[in-house]
Amino acid sequence: MQARVSWTKKPFGRGFLAGLAAGAVASAVMLFLHAVFNGLSLPESFGSELTALMPVSMFAFLHQFVGDNAKFYFYYIILAGQCVVFALGGGLYNHWANREDQPLQWYQGLFLGLILWLFAGLILLPLTGAGIFGLGLTEGIINGMVSLAIVGLVFGLLFVFWQRWLLTLRRSTATGKVAAAREAAAQRVTRRKLFQQGAVFTGVAVVGVIAWRFISEGLGATKVPVAKLLKNYHQKVTPVAPKYGEIHPAPFLSPEITPNDQYYIVSKNLQDPSVPLSEWNLRVDGLVDHPYTLSYAELAAMPMQTQYESMMCISNDIGGPNMSNALWEGVRLTDLLQKAGVKPGATKIVLHAYDDYTDSIHLSKAVEPTTLVALRMNGVQLPDGHGYPARVLVPGIYGMKHVKWLTRIEVVNYDYQGYWEQRGWDDAAPVLLTSRIDTPLDGVAVSAHGTTYIAGVAFSGNKGISAVEVSTDSGDTWQLATLQKPPSELTWVIWELPWQPTKPGTYIITVRATDMDGNVQNPNVMPPEPFGATGYHSISVPVQ
Ligand SMILES: Nc1nc2c(c(=O)[nH]1)N[C@H]1C(S)=C(S)[C@@H](COP(=O)(O)O)O[C@H]1N2
Ligand SMILES: [Mo]
Predict the structure, then answer these.
(1) Rounded to the nearest 5°, which phi and psi values hold at 460?
(2) Model confidence, pTM
(3) For 193-222, how does the pLDDT look when each residue is reduced to its tens digit (9 = 90+)?
(4) How many Å is the Cα radius of gyration of the chain?
(5) Which atom of ligand 1 is the closest one to the Cα of 324?
(6) Relative to the CA of 399, which ligand 1 atom is closest?
(7) What values do phi and psi take at 387, rounded to 5?
(8) Ligand nearest to the backbone CA of 359
(9) Ligand 2 centroid from CA 528, angstroms
């Protein structure tokens, strides 16, 4: 007689294992249906809801330490959670409905699949705010019901298959009792060892990632003590006439216009939509006299405006990469609103997107002549990743409100809060004046003989740049950089300072900008949440 029966040999354990194996495959099918046939992906729907429920401080922590890949890690954890739920479903079913641990019948698998299908459609999805079977999502209720039914079917059949297969193992190992007992004991030891090793590895990895984040980025904005920077800081000055001139080409300096394939991309989605024009139109409705719908051709036939505009993500760190500049073409939002006739009492415009993202802007911002529904970027149709077929441009406001894959413009009379605002980010979200050193690279040595061009970009949103100052002595003295005359006040400005360090040693280089109104960049170090980051970008450069 075996004294201890491993849990995997009890009905629950066997059901759990079978459920886990079937659940992993069913999850893969779910992702496949989502990617190829616009089926519903529970992890995405759920992840979206969980980030909304997360306190802002926790979100900030994750963002700080895990960085831009946070959404992917988060998603994988939820995906693993989904497999565990499948496994629990299998375990509990086997425990309650199959106490004798007999081979299951196929109809039992289908029954379990049906229960999980109803659970997902009637309980889980409504809990995430997506409505019954994803009624409120772009995928729609039909796609939701059908794709989840296929997932349930796959799960149910595979569950029975694996359960039966695991039972055949019991029969074959039950023959040589002594050998089996010895083997089971050995397995217990290796399992414990594996578990211990796994825990140690995970611990080391977590500590390593946190340490690495501290070293690689945490220091960037704090190399010069803020107290020192604040000593002769004036929030507002009389703006000087910009010192425009020729900029020397330097390695790693951003080009003034970012090519489309280098333009930063940020979105809430794991997989961004690729919108078929046959399924797309633009609806203008809400508090308007004449709601209407435009096809792409009708929208493209309206008068177009061309403008240069830079964008930055509100989650960009000081010195971070999520900032770019392009030439855009689009229809003025105010023209679209005028066509509909905005009713008195309207205060905000809600922008709805194909990926179920939403955001809102104030009516006063919406009617500014530079607020556009853009169709083209750097002379070509919007690339998929940047919002094809249409996206909003709101100069002066962070990238968040530049809604991509736009489908609907809704006029409202209440204070709507968008996707990120519901997660604690600022609703006004004006771009906070910032500047970045692109070259030389942080920590990379330069020669003491000859000239090094220190250069980068400065960005104010929509207030232009009047001056960029650079310090090469840890913020003690500042020199005026040369600016490249920008194509508009809505773009970043390329700046440069030639530098001839005389003595070898390590230099701390810092940059700060002033906009056309005389506002000076804020030296106080603040993380991106919830208003956008502030502080000065600093690098340390060894001179040899
Ligand atoms: N539909 C939709 N629009 C969106 C987003 C999104 O997830 N979905 N992300 C926003 C954010 S946070 C930013 S910073 C910008 C980025 O635009 P880009 O990828 O073209 O640079 O798009 C905004 N528009
Ligand atoms: Mo963003």
Answers:
(1) -115, 0
(2) 0.81
(3) 656 665 665 666 666 655 555 544 444 446
(4) 29
(5) 21
(6) 14
(7) 110, 15
(8) 1
(9) 10
